[in-house]
Amino acid sequence: MKILFLCTSYNSLSQSVYLALSTQHDITIEYALSEQVMMDAVELAKPDLILCPFLTCKVPQQIYTKILTLIIHPGPPGDAGPSALDWVLMGDTGEIEDADHVLQVLDHDEMQPGRSHWGVTVLQAIEQFDAGPVWAFEQFPINIDQPELTKSDVYRGPVTQAAIKASISAIDRIQRAMTKTPSSATPSAKLAGGFSIKHNPGVVSPNLEASPSYRLLSVSTLATFQGGKTHHRPLLPAKKRDFDPSRHTAQQISRRIRCGDSQPGVLSKIFGQALYIYGGIIEEGFGIARPIAPPGSIVAARNEAVCIATCDGRGIWITNVRRPKRSVDTALWPKVPAVMGLMELGILDAMKAQRLQWAASRDWSLSSTSTFQEVWIDFVPGANGKTAYLYFNFYNGAMTTKQCSQLIEAMDYILASSTPASPVKALVMMGGDYFSNGIALNVIEADVSPAASGWMNINRIDDVVQYLLQEMPKRDILTIAGIRGNAAAGGVAFAAACDIVVAGANVVLNPAYRSMGLHGSEYHSLSYFGRCGHDVGTQLLREMLPMSTFQALACGLVDHVVPGQGPALDAQIRAHVTSIVDSAPTNILTWKRGIDLSPEVLATARVTELAEMSKDFFSLRAERFHTRRFAFIRKCKSSRTPFRFAKHRRFPVGEEGKLGVGELDEEERDDFDDVKSLEWFLEKEREKMWSSHVKSLPRKISMGGSTLGESDRKDSPLDSDFGSEHGNEKNGGIRIKVPEKENPVVEAKDTTPIFSCYYTPPLEVSSA
């Protein structure tokens, strides 16, 4: 079938559903930017079916009354509302009908076990939210007190897999319903607004009848929902998740934080001023290792996280913070590591942060009690030596400069542990909930000099990859990437540098850098081209499309795909690694055989890649990275759907039904890389300076800087000083004169957050 996706954004769930369905169906995508945009997309795409995998607004009535429109809701039948997962993870069991009463009970009563199951429903769009006929639902077990389990983890894991199963089943049921001929006694469907539609056999229409059993029985088990009663629950704002460490236990606080991670967080004044906080990992060993302190006090720091004391003698780790968006702020603030954010605000100083540092383990082993631990090593003995499994669970998969240094320290420890009597035969990079998404864009965006921060970050992640390409091979240590979670950009190249890549079947890979305005590094020019050949390697970098691990297997980017998720996937990867390590060395085939990876070649590749990256950070070409990073981090609405997703807009159908010329996104054009020609960048600078929203440059939006006034624009040529982001005259940067532009017509940049319902300034932070 021809299927149109309507999405608020093309997020991880949308990508997973797309990859699962696109093998059998023709799919095109449109961002739901407005009602008119959605209606235009329907007119252009002429779909048989519309599917909304991630949608935070209503579908126009003119659409769902003409074309069968399915909504994927992250809750079982009967559940409704925009905060389905938030309520579940906070502890709502469904036993209480009134939402305010639920909050009172969760705030004052003793902790109760959460729901045992949750689900995903694929339902038909009607006037009322989440209330249409159900075409499929799937359920899964859930333990809301599983250590470190966040809303984001649940969404990317069991919710996504349930959504795929339910979507496939719903489409199959719709196709079967198409062939049924309604009896003469069957009345026409009455939809909101008085629309009346009759179903024609063989045609997908909103009048198709969903069996009542679809609402009652889950797809896989054919069982009724096992998780209790369901209700319509309202939006759960960040401020209603706040906690009091003097009376709430560590477990209660953990639930409140994890249920809003990574969106929207908990709005709390635990540090004195209102901040969104994230993390919520319980510290069990706190009472033994740290002195007793008043609840709410910062009692420890580990890397960039801080631990606060709780009333039950334990602690809670806060990993990240974000300043609230005030009414005077143009856009959202970046989300940054807790120590960094608290130091910027003067809440924590460098000396105290250093004094509070508390290592999780001296030998890099996994702690036996619940605690915050980003990196750990598990040595497993084997017949010919030991295998080192290196886990690194960094927030949202982003690798800061300091975290890259952590990984290098861990790899140095592994190298030191390899002795003639007990050699390390293999290093397995296991990643975390995400494998890796490359450099840390939030930290770069928050820095006073994003260019310098990005430059340090990319150099340090290159150091990590160099260990895989040079240091480990020198000691005959086989390198394996065990990809258990999604990976993007530098994270994919990081994995590809290993001798062998083993990936989970449900993982989504995004190997390109260009959509963020970056050339990329991490030795991708060796690994992508060495694994896939020049043509396919170039295609991976230029297409900017998500790919499944099966697609990656077919082109050589991945070597083995194994089933499972969570602990089952971990076990599958370990079993596969064991079979590889125990086999004869001559039987281990890697992409590196026959390829020159001498130190000279590695150095040349690194210098070549970093030369391009320097343009992305410091030259006029840096405009493309700085603006894209700003929009991504501050969650600004897109102005349109990229043509690479919206096939119906890339190839518009002409009056005679012939395909027009394919439209290209900026990132797909060859001149996107051309730093010698200044025309494109000068045009971007003009647009930025003439835009009605150009009260400040991206960095100045956070810093409160000023810009040129109207008289400056009219009376003199524009002095475009790229400042600390692009280099300036004092630092040997570039200063250019931009000719005056007559009668500029510029579309203002919309800095409204995608999730505006979460980030509307609350009263207590609406002023400076």
Describe the structure.
The protein has 768 residues and is of the alpha/beta class. It folds into three domains: 2-216, Formyl transferase, N-terminal domain (Rossmann fold, 3-Layer(aba) Sandwich); 238-358 and 758-765, Rossmann fold (3-Layer(aba) Sandwich); 375-612, 2-enoyl-CoA Hydratase, Chain A, domain 1 (Alpha-Beta Complex), CATH 3.90.226.10. It has 27 helices and 25 strands. The strands form six sheets. Strands 2-1-3-4-5-6 form a six-stranded mixed β-sheet, sandwiched between helices. Strands 9, 10, 11, 12, 13 and 14 form a six-stranded antiparallel β-sheet that branches. Strand 9 (266-268) and strand 10 form a beta hairpin. Keywords: Virulence. Pathway: Mycotoxin biosynthesis. This is Formyl transferase C-terminal domain-containing protein.
CATH topology of the largest domain: 2-enoyl-CoA Hydratase, Chain A, domain 1
Strand content: 15-25%
Share in helix? 25-40%
Count the E strands. Answer: 25
Name the CATH architecture of the largest domain. Answer: Alpha-Beta Complex
Query: What are the low-pLDDT stretches, counting only 5+ consecutive residues below 50?
Result: 183-197, 655-659, 692-748, 757-768
Distance between the termini: 53 Å
Which shape, going by the Cα principal axes? globular
